[in-house]
Design a protein that fits this description.
563 residues; alpha/beta; seven-stranded mixed sheet
Length: 563
């Protein structure tokens, strides 16, 4: 493959590549037969958004995110989904003048342009979009078609003979082709594959008296996807249990299982939990992408001011760093981003997790196994004999784990872990409640990051306007300012929000804070001293996002927290 050296030099000009690395990158692109823009993404040298901006300038083309486009799906009849994914093109719409607008990720793909010209005999305009967004959009459409087809087949499956054939106790004895073509099998597979491009974190399958509902958790909220007759649920239940390695004959007690699948070239780990209810077993499937982790601090919502404090915390050679917040607020993701930064060839990093959510090259990751008595505390005692420099503990759950973690921190190790507390100073009280003496906490603790996730306003439909008196009172201002409010459109599924962003409260343990921890038992005094030392509360951080138009007043009110 001939490398586009002009584009490579343009990336140098835009400071996406260092000049001294350009020749080496060109050689590696030639060796791997890979375009330079694809190589930069594969090696995480830059993000897709950064590269999109540079490519748009290089090709003198407009750029946009695909969710902002109003795509006419009737145009898909002239192209196959395989073609659109392979060549990274999507026909968007034909305007009143008869010009076809095409979303593309490879502007110089002559084969794709020729094929489009053959199918659509009309002038064409092109707009640049990220390639992963085209893949995600096509995957969403394909999965939705597959799910709808499987649902139609399942709803038509009413005769007694087929219902008997779908009995869970006979599920494992079916012929392979019967299993593959069975509507229940196809429906479960479709739900799982469809949830990925939708960006769902969990799939809920819930039986009720007459129907079974399927809901996806997207951006923190449950959204109903489908429902089907309760008569078909036994086959659905059996399929999930077989895939997850669970006991299909046991329906009286909760069970846990796991499914591993490769979807779109990425490896996913699905944690399955069943719970007996009045009308049958409810299933929740948690989705974890094990094969890739591309989050940076800026992606997670850390501001420039917060990054300065985090840099100070991560610069410490030993001590303990804690992430706090409720379940599902992204603590583990933030921990992984920290580990990614400190992961260097000259350090030994060992983690103890339950479970391992992302695999990281160069990091020794251990999984808790309670059945084998491999608890956090037992694993931690063992890995201390493995000469670690950095230790990550998935969660400090008990007194023994807390004691070992703190003592490891004061004996020369850098320890990362999570706790469940409402704010950053509360982590000190929680450790002391677990039996760790205050003098050890003050010696070991480097910093605490409290985190929440708030919804981003949809960029396509959010509406700006002046604050009213009630909003001014909430924000603590005397003069009206312009903020954004949710509206709802097709791009955000009429919710008014698209995606989430992290809100942080960072307590850096400097000398005044350290002395307060050691000498003063009053948590309110610790909060006061921390604020004097520059701590910005969760409420204040979220308020800043409201003022910037990133989120709404309604999301600010979820920060049930004293200013």
């Amino acid at each position: 493959m001939n490398i586009n050296y002009d584009l490579l030099q343009f990336f140098v000009y835009k400071k996406l590549i260092k000049r001294k690395d350009a020749d080496e990158i060109a050689a590696l692109c030639n060796k791997n037969n890979m375009p330079v823009e694809q190589y930069l993404l594969a090696k995480e040298i830059c993000t897709e958004v950064e590269e999109l901006s540079a490519l748009a300038e290089y090709y003198c083309m407009p750029s946009i995110e695909i969710d902002m486009l109003d795509i006419d799906k009737n145009l898909f009849s002239k192209l196959t989904f395989e073609f659109m994914k392979k060549h990274k093109v999507i026909p968007v719409m034909i305007d009143r003048g008869g010009t076809l607008l095409v979303a593309c990720a490879r502007p110089l793909d002559s084969a794709a342009i020729s094929a489009l010209a053959t199918q659509f005999v009309c002038p064409m305009d092109f707009v640049l979009v990220p390639p992963s967004q085209i893949d995600r959009y096509v995957d969403t459409i394909v999965a939705s078609i597959s799910t709808t087809s499987a649902l139609d087949d399942l709803n038509a499956e009413q005769d007694d003979k087929l219902l008997k054939k779908n009995d869970p106790l006979q599920a494992e004895t079916r012929k392979d082709e019967d299993v593959i073509n069975n509507p229940a099998v196809r429906l479960v597979d479709s739900f799982i594959k469809e949830a990925i491009p939708y960006g769902a974190s969990d799939i809920h399958i819930e039986p009720f008296e007459k129907v079974v509902k399927v809901r996806y958790r997207i951006d923190g909220d449950l959204q109903q996807r489908a429902e089907f007759p309760i008569e078909s649920f036994s086959a659905i239940s059996a399929r999930i249990k077989i895939m997850a390695g669970m006991n299909i004959a046991e329906r009286r007690v909760p069970q846990d299982g796991r499914i591993n699948m490769i979807i779109g070239g990425n490896e996913y780990d699905f944690r399955v939990s069943s719970l007996p209810t009045v009308h049958g077993e409810k299933f929740v499937i948690r989705i974890l992408d094990k094969s890739s982790f591309h989050f940076t601090r800026s992606d997670l919502g850390f501001t420039e001011e917060e990054n300065v404090v985090v840099d100070k915390i991560l610069a410490h050679p030993h001590g303990i760093v804690l992430l706090t917040g409720p379940t599902g607020c992204g603590k583990s993701t933030t921990l992984y981003s920290f580990l990614k930064e400190v992961n260097k060839p000259d350090v030994n990093i060992i983690t103890v997790e339950d479970p391992v959510e992302y695999t990281m090259f160069g990091v020794n990751q251990t999984q808790v196994n309670t059945r084998a008595n491999m608890t956090f505390a037992a694993a931690l005692r063992s890995i201390l004999r493995q000469d670690p420099d950095i230790i990550m503990i998935g969660e400090i759950r008990d007194e023994e784990t807390a004691q070992i973690a703190v003592r490891a921190a004061i004996t020369g190790h850098l320890v990362f872990s999570t706790l469940h507390t409402n704010d950053a100073p509360g982590a000190v009280t929680r450790l002391e409640d677990m039996g760790v003496p205050d003098y050890l906490v003050s010696d070991a603790l480097i910093g605490v990051v409290a985190q929440r996730l708030v919804k981003r306003l949809c960029p396509a439909c959010k509406k700006k306007g002046k604050t009213n008196p009630k909003e001014m009172e909430i924000l603590g201002i005397s003069e009206p300012i312009t903020i954004a409010r949710p509206q709802g459109c097709q791009f955000c599924n009429y919710t008014g929000y698209k995606g989430r962003i992290g809100v942080h409260e960072i307590m850096y343990v400097n000398e005044p804070v350290r002395e307060t921890i050691a000498r003063d038992k009053n948590i309110e005094h610790l909060r006061e001293v921390s604020r004097e030392q520059g701590l910005v509360t969760l409420w204040q951080s979220c308020r800043n996002y409201v003022v910037k138009g990133v989120t709404s007043i309604a999301e600010l009110m979820t920060m049930n927290y004293d200013q």
